[in-house]
Design a protein that fits this description.
The chain is of the alpha/beta class and 592 residues long. The chain has three domains: 115 residues, RecBCD complex, subunit RecD, N-terminal domain (Arc Repressor Mutant, subunit A); 202 residues, P-loop containing nucleotide triphosphate hydrolases (Rossmann fold, 3-Layer(aba) Sandwich); 224 residues, P-loop containing nucleotide triphosphate hydrolases (Rossmann fold, 3-Layer(aba) Sandwich). The protein contains 20 helices and 21 strands. Bound molecules: adenosine-5'-triphosphate. Adenosine-5'-triphosphate binds next to helix 8. One of its GO terms (cellular component) is exodeoxyribonuclease V complex. InterPro entries: AAA+_ATPase, Coronavir_polyprotein_1ab, P-loop_NTPase, RecD, RecD_N, RecD_N_sf, UvrD-like_helicase_C.
Length: 592
Protein backbone atom coordinates (compact mmCIF):
# COMPACT_ATOMS: atom_id res chain seq x y z
CA UNK A 1 0.00 0.00 0.00
CA UNK A 2 1.45 3.39 -0.94
CA UNK A 3 1.78 6.07 1.72
CA UNK A 4 -1.24 7.96 0.46
CA UNK A 5 -3.63 5.14 -0.38
CA UNK A 6 -6.86 5.19 1.59
CA UNK A 7 -7.24 2.07 3.78
CA UNK A 8 -10.29 0.00 2.75
CA UNK A 9 -11.38 -0.22 6.39
CA UNK A 10 -11.46 3.56 6.78
CA UNK A 11 -14.97 4.95 6.86
CA UNK A 12 -16.71 8.17 7.83
CA UNK A 13 -14.57 10.84 9.51
CA UNK A 14 -11.29 8.95 9.25
CA UNK A 15 -11.86 8.23 5.57
CA UNK A 16 -12.22 11.94 4.81
CA UNK A 17 -8.93 12.69 6.56
CA UNK A 18 -7.18 9.75 4.88
CA UNK A 19 -8.41 10.92 1.46
CA UNK A 20 -7.02 14.37 2.15
CA UNK A 21 -3.68 12.72 3.13
CA UNK A 22 -3.91 14.25 6.60
CA UNK A 23 -3.44 10.74 7.93
CA UNK A 24 -1.52 7.89 6.27
CA UNK A 25 -2.52 4.20 6.32
CA UNK A 26 0.03 3.51 9.08
CA UNK A 27 -1.57 6.19 11.29
CA UNK A 28 -5.03 4.83 10.62
CA UNK A 29 -4.12 1.24 11.49
CA UNK A 30 -2.20 2.18 14.64
CA UNK A 31 -5.03 4.40 15.85
CA UNK A 32 -7.62 1.71 15.11
CA UNK A 33 -5.63 -0.90 16.96
CA UNK A 34 -5.10 1.24 20.05
CA UNK A 35 -8.75 2.26 20.07
CA UNK A 36 -9.88 -1.37 19.73
CA UNK A 37 -7.63 -2.50 22.58
CA UNK A 38 -9.21 0.08 24.86
CA UNK A 39 -12.75 -0.33 23.48
CA UNK A 40 -12.78 3.22 22.22
CA UNK A 41 -15.35 3.79 19.49
CA UNK A 42 -15.69 7.57 19.14
CA UNK A 43 -14.35 8.46 15.65
CA UNK A 44 -13.24 11.88 16.91
CA UNK A 45 -10.96 10.13 19.42
CA UNK A 46 -9.66 7.74 16.76
CA UNK A 47 -8.92 10.76 14.60
CA UNK A 48 -6.95 12.39 17.44
CA UNK A 49 -4.92 9.16 17.87
CA UNK A 50 -4.22 8.92 14.14
CA UNK A 51 -3.15 12.58 13.92
CA UNK A 52 -0.88 12.10 16.95
CA UNK A 53 0.98 9.20 15.32
CA UNK A 54 1.18 11.22 12.10
CA UNK A 55 2.74 14.15 13.96
CA UNK A 56 5.26 11.82 15.61
CA UNK A 57 6.25 10.48 12.20
CA UNK A 58 6.79 14.05 11.04
CA UNK A 59 8.95 15.01 14.02
CA UNK A 60 6.61 16.47 16.66
CA UNK A 61 6.51 15.00 20.14
CA UNK A 62 2.78 15.54 20.57
CA UNK A 63 -0.33 16.81 18.80
CA UNK A 64 -1.66 20.19 19.82
CA UNK A 65 -5.39 19.65 19.32
CA UNK A 66 -6.06 23.38 19.46
CA UNK A 67 -3.90 23.83 16.36
CA UNK A 68 -4.81 20.65 14.53
CA UNK A 69 -6.71 22.55 11.84
CA UNK A 70 -3.34 24.02 10.71
CA UNK A 71 -1.98 20.58 9.80
CA UNK A 72 -1.06 20.28 6.13
CA UNK A 73 -1.79 17.34 3.82
CA UNK A 74 1.17 15.06 3.41
CA UNK A 75 0.77 14.48 -0.32
CA UNK A 76 3.46 16.35 -2.12
CA UNK A 77 6.27 15.69 0.34
CA UNK A 78 7.94 13.53 -2.31
CA UNK A 79 6.73 14.88 -5.56
CA UNK A 80 5.42 18.36 -5.31
CA UNK A 81 2.04 19.90 -4.78
CA UNK A 82 -1.05 18.30 -3.30
CA UNK A 83 -3.59 18.92 -6.04
CA UNK A 84 -7.22 17.91 -6.25
CA UNK A 85 -7.61 17.11 -2.54
CA UNK A 86 -10.79 18.00 -0.69
CA UNK A 87 -9.37 20.01 2.19
CA UNK A 88 -12.70 21.32 3.42
CA UNK A 89 -12.61 18.85 6.29
CA UNK A 90 -15.17 18.19 9.03
CA UNK A 91 -12.88 19.11 11.95
CA UNK A 92 -14.47 18.25 15.30
CA UNK A 93 -15.39 21.26 17.42
CA UNK A 94 -12.47 21.76 19.85
CA UNK A 95 -14.18 21.69 23.23
CA UNK A 96 -16.21 18.58 22.46
CA UNK A 97 -13.17 16.94 20.91
CA UNK A 98 -11.00 17.61 23.98
CA UNK A 99 -13.76 16.29 26.23
CA UNK A 100 -14.15 13.10 24.20
CA UNK A 101 -10.37 12.50 24.17
CA UNK A 102 -10.06 13.23 27.90
CA UNK A 103 -12.76 10.72 28.81
CA UNK A 104 -11.34 7.94 26.61
CA UNK A 105 -10.16 4.83 28.48
CA UNK A 106 -6.99 4.98 26.33
CA UNK A 107 -6.05 8.43 27.60
CA UNK A 108 -4.52 9.39 30.96
CA UNK A 109 -4.36 12.94 32.31
CA UNK A 110 -1.13 14.62 33.42
CA UNK A 111 -1.07 12.97 36.84
CA UNK A 112 -2.86 9.76 35.97
CA UNK A 113 -1.49 6.24 35.76
CA UNK A 114 0.06 5.11 32.50
CA UNK A 115 -2.24 4.54 29.52
CA UNK A 116 -1.34 4.49 25.80
CA UNK A 117 -2.03 8.23 25.41
CA UNK A 118 -1.78 11.22 27.74
CA UNK A 119 -3.63 14.52 27.42
CA UNK A 120 -1.88 17.52 28.96
CA UNK A 121 -3.86 20.72 28.35
CA UNK A 122 -4.54 20.59 24.61
CA UNK A 123 -1.48 18.40 23.92
CA UNK A 124 -2.03 14.73 23.19
CA UNK A 125 1.03 12.50 23.64
CA UNK A 126 1.81 8.87 23.18
CA UNK A 127 2.68 8.06 26.78
CA UNK A 128 6.27 7.05 26.00
CA UNK A 129 7.13 10.46 24.55
CA UNK A 130 5.47 12.27 27.43
CA UNK A 131 7.62 10.23 29.82
CA UNK A 132 10.76 11.01 27.82
CA UNK A 133 9.97 14.72 27.80
CA UNK A 134 9.46 14.71 31.56
CA UNK A 135 12.69 12.77 32.00
CA UNK A 136 14.69 15.30 29.94
CA UNK A 137 13.20 18.20 31.89
CA UNK A 138 13.86 16.55 35.24
CA UNK A 139 17.45 15.63 34.31
CA UNK A 140 18.22 19.16 33.15
CA UNK A 141 16.79 20.64 36.34
CA UNK A 142 18.69 18.14 38.48
CA UNK A 143 21.92 18.94 36.67
CA UNK A 144 21.43 22.67 37.34
CA UNK A 145 22.13 22.05 41.02
CA UNK A 146 25.20 19.87 40.61
CA UNK A 147 28.42 20.81 42.32
CA UNK A 148 31.40 19.93 40.15
CA UNK A 149 34.85 20.40 41.64
CA UNK A 150 35.92 24.02 40.97
CA UNK A 151 38.50 24.68 38.24
CA UNK A 152 41.69 26.22 39.60
CA UNK A 153 42.79 29.71 38.58
CA UNK A 154 45.66 28.67 36.31
CA UNK A 155 43.26 26.63 34.18
CA UNK A 156 40.74 29.45 34.04
CA UNK A 157 43.43 31.88 32.89
CA UNK A 158 44.59 29.43 30.23
CA UNK A 159 41.06 29.01 28.87
CA UNK A 160 40.40 32.74 29.04
CA UNK A 161 43.17 33.40 26.53
CA UNK A 162 41.86 33.31 22.97
CA UNK A 163 43.62 30.88 20.65
CA UNK A 164 46.50 32.14 18.51
CA UNK A 165 45.46 34.40 15.63
CA UNK A 166 41.81 34.57 16.75
CA UNK A 167 39.96 37.84 17.16
CA UNK A 168 38.43 38.71 20.53
CA UNK A 169 34.80 37.56 20.76
CA UNK A 170 32.95 38.26 23.99
CA UNK A 171 30.39 35.53 23.39
CA UNK A 172 33.07 32.90 22.81
CA UNK A 173 34.65 34.07 26.10
CA UNK A 174 31.27 33.76 27.83
CA UNK A 175 30.78 30.24 26.46
CA UNK A 176 34.22 29.15 27.70
CA UNK A 177 33.55 30.63 31.10
CA UNK A 178 30.12 28.98 31.31
CA UNK A 179 31.45 25.56 30.38
CA UNK A 180 34.16 25.72 33.01
CA UNK A 181 31.78 26.82 35.75
CA UNK A 182 28.58 24.91 35.08
CA UNK A 183 27.84 21.22 35.06
CA UNK A 184 25.72 21.64 31.92
CA UNK A 185 26.33 24.19 29.19
CA UNK A 186 24.63 24.67 25.86
CA UNK A 187 26.57 26.52 23.17
CA UNK A 188 24.53 27.44 20.12
CA UNK A 189 25.46 29.31 16.98
CA UNK A 190 25.29 29.19 13.20
CA UNK A 191 28.02 27.78 10.98
CA UNK A 192 31.42 29.36 11.37
CA UNK A 193 30.60 31.13 14.65
CA UNK A 194 33.45 29.36 16.43
CA UNK A 195 31.72 26.50 18.23
CA UNK A 196 34.61 24.10 17.55
CA UNK A 197 37.15 26.79 18.37
CA UNK A 198 35.36 27.37 21.67
CA UNK A 199 35.34 23.65 22.48
CA UNK A 200 39.11 23.60 21.90
CA UNK A 201 39.52 26.49 24.36
CA UNK A 202 37.35 24.76 26.94
CA UNK A 203 39.37 21.57 26.61
CA UNK A 204 42.55 23.65 26.87
CA UNK A 205 41.23 24.88 30.22
CA UNK A 206 40.29 21.40 31.41
CA UNK A 207 43.55 19.73 30.34
CA UNK A 208 45.52 18.38 33.27
CA UNK A 209 48.84 16.59 32.83
CA UNK A 210 48.67 14.95 36.27
CA UNK A 211 45.10 13.78 36.04
CA UNK A 212 43.96 13.92 32.39
CA UNK A 213 40.17 14.03 32.17
CA UNK A 214 38.45 11.38 30.06
CA UNK A 215 36.53 13.27 27.36
CA UNK A 216 33.85 11.90 25.04
CA UNK A 217 33.45 13.82 21.77
CA UNK A 218 30.10 12.60 20.51
CA UNK A 219 27.63 13.39 17.73
CA UNK A 220 24.52 11.81 16.23
CA UNK A 221 26.40 10.64 13.11
CA UNK A 222 29.79 9.00 12.61
CA UNK A 223 30.82 11.70 10.19
CA UNK A 224 30.00 14.51 12.62
CA UNK A 225 31.82 12.83 15.51
CA UNK A 226 35.03 12.22 13.55
CA UNK A 227 34.85 15.74 12.11
CA UNK A 228 34.56 17.21 15.63
CA UNK A 229 37.46 15.09 16.87
CA UNK A 230 39.80 16.16 14.09
CA UNK A 231 38.73 19.84 14.21
CA UNK A 232 39.23 19.94 17.98
CA UNK A 233 42.57 18.15 17.75
CA UNK A 234 43.77 20.70 15.18
CA UNK A 235 42.77 23.69 17.32
CA UNK A 236 43.89 22.47 20.75
CA UNK A 237 46.30 25.07 22.08
CA UNK A 238 48.73 22.61 23.63
CA UNK A 239 47.96 19.52 21.55
CA UNK A 240 46.21 16.60 23.21
CA UNK A 241 48.45 16.61 26.28
CA UNK A 242 46.59 16.45 29.57
CA UNK A 243 43.44 15.03 27.94
CA UNK A 244 42.12 11.57 27.14
CA UNK A 245 39.96 12.24 24.06
CA UNK A 246 37.68 9.62 22.53
CA UNK A 247 35.16 10.14 19.72
CA UNK A 248 31.89 8.26 19.36
CA UNK A 249 28.50 8.35 17.72
CA UNK A 250 25.85 8.78 20.42
CA UNK A 251 24.70 5.22 19.70
CA UNK A 252 28.23 3.92 20.34
CA UNK A 253 28.73 6.09 23.40
CA UNK A 254 25.61 4.73 25.04
CA UNK A 255 26.04 1.21 23.66
CA UNK A 256 22.60 1.21 22.04
CA UNK A 257 21.64 -2.24 20.79
CA UNK A 258 20.50 -1.70 17.16
CA UNK A 259 16.74 -1.88 16.70
CA UNK A 260 16.14 -2.21 20.47
CA UNK A 261 15.59 0.21 23.31
CA UNK A 262 18.36 -1.53 25.29
CA UNK A 263 21.66 0.17 25.91
CA UNK A 264 24.77 -0.55 27.91
CA UNK A 265 24.91 2.84 29.61
CA UNK A 266 21.97 4.34 31.45
CA UNK A 267 21.02 5.13 35.03
CA UNK A 268 22.01 1.53 35.88
CA UNK A 269 25.51 1.94 34.45
CA UNK A 270 26.64 5.56 34.19
CA UNK A 271 29.18 6.77 31.65
CA UNK A 272 32.70 6.94 33.08
CA UNK A 273 33.65 10.20 31.34
CA UNK A 274 34.64 13.40 33.12
CA UNK A 275 33.45 15.48 30.17
CA UNK A 276 30.86 14.66 27.50
CA UNK A 277 30.67 17.02 24.53
CA UNK A 278 27.89 16.53 21.98
CA UNK A 279 28.13 18.27 18.60
CA UNK A 280 25.29 18.71 16.08
CA UNK A 281 22.83 18.49 18.98
CA UNK A 282 20.06 19.89 16.72
CA UNK A 283 19.95 16.42 15.14
CA UNK A 284 19.49 14.62 18.48
CA UNK A 285 15.99 13.22 18.97
CA UNK A 286 14.03 13.46 22.22
CA UNK A 287 14.51 9.73 22.83
CA UNK A 288 18.28 9.91 22.38
CA UNK A 289 18.53 13.00 24.59
CA UNK A 290 16.58 11.30 27.37
CA UNK A 291 18.90 8.26 27.13
CA UNK A 292 21.99 10.46 27.17
CA UNK A 293 20.88 12.49 30.19
CA UNK A 294 20.06 9.30 32.09
CA UNK A 295 23.55 7.96 31.42
CA UNK A 296 25.55 11.08 32.32
CA UNK A 297 26.65 11.05 35.95
CA UNK A 298 26.52 13.90 38.43
CA UNK A 299 30.30 14.31 38.25
CA UNK A 300 30.38 14.62 34.46
CA UNK A 301 30.57 18.01 32.77
CA UNK A 302 28.09 18.04 29.88
CA UNK A 303 28.46 20.44 26.96
CA UNK A 304 25.86 20.46 24.18
CA UNK A 305 26.77 22.22 20.94
CA UNK A 306 24.66 22.92 17.89
CA UNK A 307 22.65 25.25 15.71
CA UNK A 308 18.97 25.24 16.69
CA UNK A 309 18.07 27.06 13.46
CA UNK A 310 19.01 23.99 11.43
CA UNK A 311 16.76 21.12 10.50
CA UNK A 312 16.01 18.90 13.47
CA UNK A 313 16.31 15.14 13.90
CA UNK A 314 14.39 12.92 11.47
CA UNK A 315 12.90 11.35 14.60
CA UNK A 316 10.57 13.09 17.04
CA UNK A 317 11.76 16.08 18.99
CA UNK A 318 13.82 19.22 18.58
CA UNK A 319 15.42 19.34 22.01
CA UNK A 320 18.13 21.88 21.20
CA UNK A 321 15.60 24.31 19.70
CA UNK A 322 13.38 23.82 22.76
CA UNK A 323 16.30 24.57 25.11
CA UNK A 324 17.26 27.63 23.07
CA UNK A 325 13.66 28.85 23.19
CA UNK A 326 13.35 28.16 26.95
CA UNK A 327 16.77 28.80 28.49
CA UNK A 328 15.15 28.43 31.95
CA UNK A 329 15.25 24.67 31.37
CA UNK A 330 18.87 24.86 32.49
CA UNK A 331 19.46 27.28 35.30
CA UNK A 332 22.94 28.24 36.23
CA UNK A 333 24.40 27.96 39.72
CA UNK A 334 28.15 28.39 39.37
CA UNK A 335 29.86 26.72 42.29
CA UNK A 336 32.99 28.83 42.50
CA UNK A 337 31.33 32.04 43.63
CA UNK A 338 32.50 33.69 40.42
CA UNK A 339 29.17 35.22 39.53
CA UNK A 340 26.56 34.03 37.10
CA UNK A 341 27.72 32.29 33.96
CA UNK A 342 24.74 31.74 31.68
CA UNK A 343 24.35 28.08 30.91
CA UNK A 344 23.00 28.73 27.41
CA UNK A 345 25.27 30.89 25.24
CA UNK A 346 24.61 31.82 21.63
CA UNK A 347 27.63 32.65 19.46
CA UNK A 348 26.75 35.20 16.79
CA UNK A 349 29.76 36.33 14.69
CA UNK A 350 30.32 34.25 11.60
CA UNK A 351 34.06 33.98 10.93
CA UNK A 352 33.74 31.79 7.86
CA UNK A 353 31.02 32.76 5.35
CA UNK A 354 31.15 36.01 3.38
CA UNK A 355 29.17 39.00 4.58
CA UNK A 356 26.35 38.71 2.04
CA UNK A 357 25.65 35.12 3.07
CA UNK A 358 25.73 36.10 6.73
CA UNK A 359 23.22 38.91 6.08
CA UNK A 360 21.02 36.54 4.09
CA UNK A 361 21.10 33.97 6.92
CA UNK A 362 20.16 36.65 9.46
CA UNK A 363 17.23 37.88 7.34
CA UNK A 364 16.00 34.29 6.99
CA UNK A 365 16.23 33.77 10.75
CA UNK A 366 14.19 36.94 11.29
CA UNK A 367 11.58 35.69 8.82
CA UNK A 368 11.99 38.92 6.82
CA UNK A 369 10.97 37.85 3.30
CA UNK A 370 11.32 41.35 1.79
CA UNK A 371 14.89 41.65 3.04
CA UNK A 372 15.72 38.18 1.71
CA UNK A 373 14.30 38.97 -1.74
CA UNK A 374 16.08 42.34 -1.68
CA UNK A 375 19.44 40.76 -0.83
CA UNK A 376 19.05 38.17 -3.58
CA UNK A 377 18.01 40.77 -6.16
CA UNK A 378 20.91 43.11 -5.43
CA UNK A 379 23.34 40.37 -4.43
CA UNK A 380 26.48 39.37 -6.23
CA UNK A 381 27.35 36.24 -4.33
CA UNK A 382 23.73 35.34 -3.48
CA UNK A 383 21.23 35.07 -6.33
CA UNK A 384 17.76 33.72 -7.19
CA UNK A 385 16.87 32.35 -10.62
CA UNK A 386 13.43 31.26 -11.65
CA UNK A 387 12.86 27.51 -11.88
CA UNK A 388 9.36 26.09 -12.29
CA UNK A 389 10.24 22.41 -12.62
CA UNK A 390 10.23 22.44 -16.41
CA UNK A 391 13.37 24.34 -17.50
CA UNK A 392 16.34 22.31 -18.77
CA UNK A 393 19.67 22.57 -16.95
CA UNK A 394 21.16 24.29 -20.01
CA UNK A 395 19.08 27.39 -19.16
CA UNK A 396 21.39 28.06 -16.23
CA UNK A 397 24.86 29.21 -17.32
CA UNK A 398 26.15 29.85 -13.82
CA UNK A 399 25.15 26.38 -12.70
CA UNK A 400 26.85 24.84 -15.71
CA UNK A 401 30.00 26.86 -14.98
CA UNK A 402 30.01 25.67 -11.34
CA UNK A 403 29.44 22.06 -12.40
CA UNK A 404 32.11 22.17 -15.10
CA UNK A 405 34.76 23.84 -12.96
CA UNK A 406 34.21 21.44 -10.07
CA UNK A 407 34.12 18.30 -12.21
CA UNK A 408 37.24 19.42 -14.11
CA UNK A 409 39.19 19.96 -10.89
CA UNK A 410 37.94 16.72 -9.32
CA UNK A 411 38.74 14.79 -12.47
CA UNK A 412 42.24 16.26 -12.87
CA UNK A 413 43.12 15.30 -9.28
CA UNK A 414 41.52 11.86 -9.73
CA UNK A 415 43.55 11.14 -12.87
CA UNK A 416 46.69 12.12 -10.93
CA UNK A 417 45.64 9.64 -8.22
CA UNK A 418 45.47 12.40 -5.62
CA UNK A 419 42.47 11.49 -3.42
CA UNK A 420 42.96 14.37 -0.97
CA UNK A 421 42.96 16.97 -3.76
CA UNK A 422 40.00 15.29 -5.48
CA UNK A 423 37.94 15.45 -2.29
CA UNK A 424 38.96 19.05 -1.66
CA UNK A 425 37.86 19.95 -5.20
CA UNK A 426 34.54 18.18 -4.61
CA UNK A 427 33.87 20.70 -1.85
CA UNK A 428 33.85 23.59 -4.31
CA UNK A 429 30.21 23.23 -5.28
CA UNK A 430 27.17 21.10 -4.51
CA UNK A 431 23.59 20.91 -5.81
CA UNK A 432 21.21 20.66 -2.83
CA UNK A 433 17.56 19.63 -3.03
CA UNK A 434 14.79 19.26 -0.47
CA UNK A 435 12.93 16.56 -2.36
CA UNK A 436 14.20 13.15 -3.37
CA UNK A 437 11.97 12.59 -6.38
CA UNK A 438 10.36 14.64 -9.11
CA UNK A 439 11.59 17.72 -10.99
CA UNK A 440 12.74 19.38 -7.74
CA UNK A 441 14.41 16.25 -6.38
CA UNK A 442 17.91 14.86 -5.95
CA UNK A 443 17.29 11.99 -8.39
CA UNK A 444 16.38 14.30 -11.26
CA UNK A 445 19.16 16.82 -10.63
CA UNK A 446 21.88 14.20 -10.10
CA UNK A 447 20.93 12.46 -13.37
CA UNK A 448 20.71 15.74 -15.27
CA UNK A 449 24.02 17.09 -13.98
CA UNK A 450 25.79 13.81 -14.63
CA UNK A 451 24.26 13.59 -18.13
CA UNK A 452 25.42 17.10 -19.01
CA UNK A 453 28.93 16.46 -17.63
CA UNK A 454 29.19 13.25 -19.64
CA UNK A 455 28.84 15.40 -22.76
CA UNK A 456 31.68 17.65 -21.58
CA UNK A 457 34.27 15.08 -20.48
CA UNK A 458 35.21 11.95 -22.36
CA UNK A 459 34.36 8.77 -20.47
CA UNK A 460 32.49 10.65 -17.72
CA UNK A 461 29.54 8.88 -16.15
CA UNK A 462 28.95 6.38 -18.93
CA UNK A 463 28.10 2.75 -18.26
CA UNK A 464 27.62 1.12 -14.90
CA UNK A 465 31.26 0.93 -13.78
CA UNK A 466 33.35 3.43 -11.85
CA UNK A 467 35.24 6.20 -13.64
CA UNK A 468 38.00 8.58 -12.52
CA UNK A 469 36.41 11.58 -10.89
CA UNK A 470 33.16 9.80 -9.98
CA UNK A 471 31.74 11.46 -6.83
CA UNK A 472 30.10 9.14 -4.28
CA UNK A 473 28.02 9.53 -1.14
CA UNK A 474 28.24 6.71 1.43
CA UNK A 475 24.84 5.82 2.81
CA UNK A 476 25.66 3.29 5.55
CA UNK A 477 28.21 2.94 8.35
CA UNK A 478 30.87 0.27 7.77
CA UNK A 479 34.45 -0.47 8.84
CA UNK A 480 35.77 1.70 6.02
CA UNK A 481 33.35 4.63 5.91
CA UNK A 482 30.59 6.38 7.84
CA UNK A 483 27.12 7.17 6.58
CA UNK A 484 27.39 10.66 5.06
CA UNK A 485 31.08 10.39 4.09
CA UNK A 486 31.92 11.36 0.55
CA UNK A 487 34.44 9.78 -1.81
CA UNK A 488 35.91 10.26 -5.28
CA UNK A 489 37.07 7.44 -7.56
CA UNK A 490 40.76 7.98 -8.39
CA UNK A 491 43.21 6.25 -10.72
CA UNK A 492 46.15 4.52 -9.06
CA UNK A 493 48.28 2.83 -11.73
CA UNK A 494 45.92 0.48 -13.57
CA UNK A 495 43.39 0.41 -10.75
CA UNK A 496 40.44 2.56 -9.85
CA UNK A 497 40.11 3.14 -6.10
CA UNK A 498 37.60 5.12 -4.07
CA UNK A 499 39.27 7.85 -2.01
CA UNK A 500 37.01 8.21 1.05
CA UNK A 501 37.19 11.62 2.71
CA UNK A 502 37.53 10.73 6.39
CA UNK A 503 38.26 13.19 9.16
CA UNK A 504 41.52 11.33 9.89
CA UNK A 505 42.61 11.63 6.23
CA UNK A 506 41.90 10.04 2.87
CA UNK A 507 41.26 6.31 2.88
CA UNK A 508 41.69 4.35 -0.38
CA UNK A 509 39.37 1.37 -0.84
CA UNK A 510 38.21 -0.79 -3.70
CA UNK A 511 34.98 0.80 -5.01
CA UNK A 512 33.22 -2.57 -4.84
CA UNK A 513 33.59 -2.46 -1.05
CA UNK A 514 31.34 0.58 -1.02
CA UNK A 515 28.10 -1.30 -1.66
CA UNK A 516 26.11 1.42 -0.01
CA UNK A 517 27.27 4.40 -2.01
CA UNK A 518 25.20 6.55 -4.35
CA UNK A 519 25.83 9.14 -7.00
CA UNK A 520 26.81 12.51 -5.55
CA UNK A 521 25.98 14.96 -8.31
CA UNK A 522 23.29 16.27 -5.98
CA UNK A 523 22.34 15.60 -2.36
CA UNK A 524 19.48 16.34 0.02
CA UNK A 525 19.71 19.34 2.30
CA UNK A 526 19.19 16.95 5.24
CA UNK A 527 22.32 14.99 4.30
CA UNK A 528 24.31 18.19 3.79
CA UNK A 529 24.00 19.19 7.46
CA UNK A 530 27.44 19.62 8.97
CA UNK A 531 29.14 20.04 5.56
CA UNK A 532 30.52 23.17 3.93
CA UNK A 533 31.05 24.06 0.26
CA UNK A 534 32.42 27.12 -1.52
CA UNK A 535 29.21 27.46 -3.56
CA UNK A 536 25.80 25.81 -3.27
CA UNK A 537 23.03 25.62 -5.86
CA UNK A 538 19.78 25.11 -3.96
CA UNK A 539 16.71 23.78 -5.75
CA UNK A 540 13.77 25.25 -3.84
CA UNK A 541 10.68 23.06 -3.47
CA UNK A 542 7.51 24.42 -5.10
CA UNK A 543 4.79 26.29 -3.22
CA UNK A 544 2.59 23.73 -1.49
CA UNK A 545 5.45 21.45 -0.49
CA UNK A 546 5.50 20.81 3.25
CA UNK A 547 9.30 20.83 3.04
CA UNK A 548 9.31 24.53 2.21
CA UNK A 549 10.39 25.83 5.62
CA UNK A 550 12.68 28.45 7.09
CA UNK A 551 14.94 25.83 8.70
CA UNK A 552 15.38 24.05 5.39
CA UNK A 553 16.34 27.24 3.56
CA UNK A 554 18.63 28.37 6.39
CA UNK A 555 20.38 25.00 6.53
CA UNK A 556 20.90 25.01 2.76
CA UNK A 557 22.31 28.50 2.39
CA UNK A 558 24.57 28.28 5.43
CA UNK A 559 26.43 25.38 3.82
CA UNK A 560 28.11 27.95 1.51
CA UNK A 561 31.28 29.92 2.16
CA UNK A 562 31.29 32.21 -0.89
CA UNK A 563 28.25 31.75 -3.18
CA UNK A 564 24.58 30.87 -2.78
CA UNK A 565 22.51 30.32 -5.90
CA UNK A 566 18.85 29.60 -5.38
CA UNK A 567 16.73 28.08 -8.16
CA UNK A 568 12.98 28.40 -7.72
CA UNK A 569 10.16 30.90 -7.58
CA UNK A 570 10.07 34.10 -5.54
CA UNK A 571 6.77 33.01 -4.03
CA UNK A 572 8.29 29.71 -2.88
CA UNK A 573 11.17 31.65 -1.36
CA UNK A 574 8.76 33.93 0.54
CA UNK A 575 6.81 30.94 1.80
CA UNK A 576 10.01 29.28 3.03
CA UNK A 577 11.21 32.39 4.87
CA UNK A 578 7.87 32.92 6.60
CA UNK A 579 7.17 29.27 7.48
CA UNK A 580 9.05 28.06 10.55
CA UNK A 581 8.99 24.26 10.80
CA UNK A 582 6.44 23.48 13.47
CA UNK A 583 7.37 20.79 15.94
CA UNK A 584 4.94 20.50 18.77
CA UNK A 585 6.63 19.79 22.09
CA UNK A 586 5.92 20.63 25.69
CA UNK A 587 9.57 20.81 26.73
CA UNK A 588 10.17 23.91 28.79
CA UNK A 589 6.66 25.21 28.14
CA UNK A 590 4.58 22.94 30.27
CA UNK A 591 4.01 25.44 33.03
CA UNK A 592 4.84 28.54 31.01
N1 LIG B 1 37.47 34.53 17.38
C1 LIG B 1 37.84 34.18 16.15
N2 LIG B 1 38.66 34.97 15.41
C2 LIG B 1 39.03 34.64 14.17
N3 LIG B 1 38.68 33.50 13.54
C3 LIG B 1 37.87 32.66 14.23
C4 LIG B 1 37.41 32.96 15.55
N4 LIG B 1 36.62 31.94 15.95
C5 LIG B 1 36.58 31.06 14.95
N5 LIG B 1 37.35 31.48 13.92
C6 LIG B 1 37.59 30.80 12.64
O1 LIG B 1 36.34 30.68 11.97
C7 LIG B 1 36.25 29.40 11.33
C8 LIG B 1 35.03 28.68 11.89
O2 LIG B 1 35.25 28.36 13.25
P1 LIG B 1 34.73 27.01 13.88
O3 LIG B 1 35.04 25.87 12.98
O4 LIG B 1 35.20 26.97 15.29
O5 LIG B 1 33.18 27.33 13.83
P2 LIG B 1 31.94 26.33 14.02
O6 LIG B 1 30.88 27.14 14.68
O7 LIG B 1 32.39 25.10 14.73
O8 LIG B 1 31.56 26.05 12.54
P3 LIG B 1 30.73 24.81 11.92
O9 LIG B 1 29.62 24.48 12.86
O10 LIG B 1 30.25 25.37 10.65
O11 LIG B 1 31.73 23.71 11.75
C9 LIG B 1 37.55 28.66 11.62
O12 LIG B 1 38.42 28.88 10.52
C10 LIG B 1 38.08 29.38 12.85
O13 LIG B 1 39.49 29.34 12.91
Amino acid sequence: MSRHEVPVAATGLLRRFAEATLIAPVDFHLARRMAALCRETDPRVELAFALTTRELRLGSVCLDLSRATDLAPEAGIEDGVAEGLDLDLPWPELEGWLGAVASSPAVADEDGESRPFRLVGTWLYLDRYWAEERSVEASLHRRSDLQLPPIDDAHLVRAATPLMSRLPDALQDAAVSAALRNATTVITGGPGTGKTTTVARILGGLADEDNPPLVALAAPTGKASTRLASAVAESLPQGQGGLRLRSYTLHKLLGVVPGRAQRIHGSHNLLPHDVVIVDETSMVSLTMMSWLLEAVSGRTRLILIGDPQQLASVEAGAVLADIAASPGLITSHPVDGSGAADAVVELRSNFRSNEEITRLATAIQRGDANAVVGLLTAGESCTLQDYTGREPITDYDVLLTDLHATAAAVRAAALEGDGGAANAALGRHRILCAHREGPFGVGHWARTARGWLSEQFEGYGLGAGAWPGQPLLITRNSDTAANGDTAVVVKRGDRLLAAVDRAQGTLLVDPVLLDDATDLHAMTIHKSQGSQFDAVSVILPPVGSPLLTRELLYTAITRARTHVRLYGGEEALRVAVTTPARRASGLGRRRA
